[in-house]
Specification:
Oligomer: single chain
Distance between the termini: 110 Å
Coiled coil: 110-171
Strand content: 5-15%
Helix content: 55-70%
Shape: rod-shaped
Number of strands: 2
Region (Disordered): 52-93
Keywords: Coiled coil
Strand order of the largest sheet: 1-2
Structural class: mainly alpha
Biased composition (Basic residues): 54-80
Protein name: No apical meristem-associated C-terminal domain-containing protein
Length: 175
């Protein structure tokens, strides 16, 4: 190794060899490949045929996990242009369950809203009925007071009687 460092320094303007870690990695990877042929000798060092090196690299990379697709590939897949999803067209069980839960929740909310509307309409109808009942009672009171014999009333009582009739007539007219 010392001779190799000196040779590199001599042939590269006295710069030290800084890629020793790469050399060690390459040496480790090539130790198990005795069947590979050494091809050419350039400046005293041996290099392997590049096809063999690439073949070795692809063999070791197959065992590693594949890196996920990038953002562009994901967008193209969404638009239907790229490769299909690794999950396929079928959604996962979790997504199916999530969709069912959301659908059930939406249906429950819709029913609750309908029940609230029905309740509000019932309250409104009840209030209208109550109002109509009160109006009918006022009208009955008005008719009763109109039919009353006022000949025996004093002047003050007659005045009050007329004021009450006027008031009831105004209230009935407003409604």
């Amino acid at each position: 190794m010392e001779k190799a460092r000196e040779w590199y320094k001599k042939h590269n303007n006295q710069k030290p060899f800084t890629l020793e870690y790469m050399w060690k990695d390459l040496k480790i990877n090539l130790n198990g490949l005795e069947s590979l042929k050494r091809v050419t000798i350039i400046r005293g060092t041996r290099f392997l045929n590049q096809e063999h090196i690439l073949h070795r690299r692809t063999k070791t990379q197959k065992h590693k996990e594949k890196r996920p697709k990038g953002q562009k590939a994901a967008k193209q897949r969404q638009k239907g242009k790229g490769a299909p999803s690794p999950l396929g067209d079928k959604p996962s069980q979790n997504m199916v369950l999530f969709h069912e839960a959301i659908t059930t929740k939406a249906a429950a909310l819709l029913k609750a809203t309908e029940a609230t509307l029905i309740g509000a309409e019932a309250k409104k109808e009840k209030a209208i009925a109550k109002k109509e009942k009160a109006r009918a009672e006022k009208y009955q009171m008005y008719l009763k007071l109109m039919e009353k014999d006022t000949s025996t009333f004093s002047e003050a009582k007659l005045k009050r009687h007329e004021n009450v009739l006027d008031q009831l007539a105004r209230e009935l007219a407003e409604e």
